[in-house]
């Protein structure tokens, strides 16, 4: 009780409001799960909205010349128009890419993987704009392409933009790219689980709890945004099917073996060869346009995404020649476009071609064993999953897509058999490590990170750096030195003239020197000349990951980095010191 019987109030310090700096600092560590989950929701909202805009732009463009404004109604177009459309498309894409640097023309899933591996998920704006143009023109122009590649690139880049705008640590940018990838797949196919698995298996190439949770939230949110506009139906309708008997399993194995061979051939054909690179750009693009136009003259089913053709396979039995054209022709046209430098998405075409090839095998099995054979629709679905798994070398993503599209768990048993056999045949028969990895390997890039670098890329520099640092001029008076040491810094960052990188000095060395009797008479100290442990240093950004710091240490051939960031225009502040020992200790003790 206080005076006069009035209860006394204890002093309570004001609550600290959460700041953006504290948010960034928390994200630098490996266990910032709540913060990453918030970012995952933001990523899903943004990506889902972008997918609605992309599909809306596609439908708006189709109103100009497609029957009923349907962007896939190439079969109902007049023959001259559907033949000339691919030529116009490659011309527009070629004009856009003409005289552009090669790096700006990189788009799609392969570009996302490259930026994630070599640039910590930072996505260039010019490539993002190029993806809008190429994605819309390729689909409206009747090239054999899908909308999943644009969805993934647009979503991943937009999600990365969130992190870059907020100046978040680069380890969180990597998670944001995974979030955008998952949300793009979920919003495009309406398959949120497959989106999550695809992001982790194909793009991020790792499974961690810290990565899973925000990616799940992003995928779910992206799917919800898409469903609010387009409904809850998947990209194409799938009837309810099941195996007639286990006697189908041997033929399913044969079908998967055939699909694995075709998938490996597709990856091999799509790889740019030396003789292809010798052709001029206009010649390569013209060859792609002419090839599509010639086949589309008789078989317009090879144009566009092909989801309408896929639905017809699942509800009926298209003509045999149409199935062959879609199974082999559409796959060959997609591979030719990629090999000749026309950046189209492959996921839609491989799904449709896999389904057509599976249908052909199912019809043959029904002819051989009419009383025992399951419906060809079963083989269509299994062929779709097997082709996706074999081309991408992503068996789990293919199985999850199969499950979510069919809503039928009984098809997982034959699905696992088909996917595993197809993946093994493509991998062993063609030494195929996946379409996107093979494509990047052919460019001299190696997207599979070493375990050390993969672990270090999950944590940013602020989580490990030494923050007890003081900036010091080269020449100090005794009074200035005492004032500097009063803050008990661990390191002194000593400035040098002519904009040379600063030098690191252990503060304990200066403290011992000032107590030494031999130096009691000194009034000034030259921090670059006095006895003490000095080290050369190189800069590293505050947002960098430990993998970037480790690479910078090796590149600059130093053992210490000073961490700097911009606090105002043209004003750089040193926030801490990170040493090679600190990074190695983190990896050993993680």
From TrEMBL:
What GO cellular component is one of the record's annotations? chloride channel complex
- What membrane topology is annotated for this entry? Multi-pass membrane protein
A GO term, aspect molecular function: chloride channel activity
Instruction: Indicate where this protein is primarily found.
Output: membrane
Q: Which residues cross the membrane?
A: 33-57, 77-98, 125-145, 175-199, 211-230, 250-269, 281-299, 319-339, 346-366, 378-403, 410-430
Protein keywords: Chloride, Chloride channel, Ion channel, Ion transport, Membrane, Transmembrane, Transmembrane helix, Transport
Stored Pfam families: Voltage_CLC
Where is this protein found?
A: Membrane
Protein name, as recorded:
Cl-channel voltage-gated family protein
